[in-house]
Amino acid sequence: MPHDPTLERLLTFLHCSPTPWHAVANMCKRLEQAGYRRLDETQPWQLSPGQRVYVTRNDSSLVALQLPTDRLHALRMLGAHSDSPGLRLKPNAAQVSGGWLQLGVEVYGGALLAPWFDRDLGLAGRVHLRREDGRLQGVLLNVERPVAFVPSLAIHLDREANNGRAINPQTQMAPVLLQGGDPGDLERLLKRWLYEQHNIENAAILDFELALYDTQPPARVGVEGELIASARLDNLLSCFIGLEALLASDGRQAAVLVANDHEEVGSASACGAQGPFLGDVLRRVNAQLGETGEEGFIRLIQSSRLISCDNAHALHPNFIDKHDAGHGPAINGGPVIKVNANQRYATNSATSALFRDLCHEVGVPVQTFVTRADMGCGSTIGPITATELGVPTLDVGVAQWGMHSIRETVGSRDIAYLTRALTAFLNRAELL
């Protein structure tokens, strides 16, 4: 298959981003390489036209801004989320059973549990320490080699395993970590890994937020390489595409990329889409570069547009009946406009028309997804951000299979399609 630098960047980003903290750190690195300057929310900001800046909150959410070369009067905004469903360690995770040290886990978000069995699992997240001199420090940890495993029960011991048996995450999904270990070994192992990765010795571990993840690397699959298979495509793929579009834009318009944490658990947090993060940042920017006061901010938001990017359910060849007959998006068929009359998606006819016009302008095919009327519908940061800010919003995404599985699948051609459309959006002179 032909070499594609964009897809190679995507595979590297997915591989190096096992948690939201790693994903945001990697996005920040690319932004800084492109000339973006980091802002600190606790410090005064000095902004001027044409600058490129970014700010993070909780180290797991990010807002990047390309400031206009003239007066701020409208924002072209891209939104995604940095978190993915999975298994996260409980605070007192170490437990012993049957001669094995195991890890007690919580299910984060609506994870599809069955694919987690019999996978090689690494461990990643952030750890907070007290150093020998009394300083508190947070560091990222990524144990990339397989150190944990959730073994299946043999079918000989559970003859109903293929008949829809429910999975109990409390009693049946504790990964094995170390044979013959005891609870104190977990802290010992964490300290060893911290020393290997950060050369940190004699520090007290105060707390951690750690997640398990599949160590199988992302890959192009299919005879012609027409598919991308990876963990966390929902929604690191949208983070990647949004960043690619931002960096490829011409820089003349005011552009924003927001990647919120905690979408998979409802977005209600200080750094989630339902929280104040994005609004806080935009108000500070508007106070320096736009019309001051609350009326000026409202005028700015109503002149702006947000494209919320989150993957869509592709038509599955083995489950055709799970889609409405007229709304089954195809893999590699172009970006998908997501519509829901009950406002689970924020799309309306005006924002949809804008996106269709953008796709027509740059020669990108476009599709539409509506869930079956007899099925429930998921949601995105789109309706939540629209509710918090009042910004006219559209929900789009790349079509995918296996959403919320430990390994998901998208079309390799769809990455370029959506990137091209979003770049055109960021470059567009008139939004209304």
UniProtKB/TrEMBL annotation:
Keywords: Aminopeptidase, Hydrolase, Metal-binding, Metalloprotease, Protease, Zinc. Its EC number is 3.4.11.-. The lineage of its organism: Bacteria, Pseudomonadati, Pseudomonadota, Gammaproteobacteria, Oceanospirillales. Transmembrane segments: none annotated. Pfam families: Peptidase_M18. InterPro entries: Peptidase_M18, Peptidase_M18_dom2. Coiled coil: none annotated. Its cofactor is Zn(2+). This is M18 family aminopeptidase. Belongs to the peptidase M18 family. GO terms for molecular function: aminopeptidase activity. CDD domains: M18_DAP. It comes from the Bacteria. The keyword Hydrolase applies.
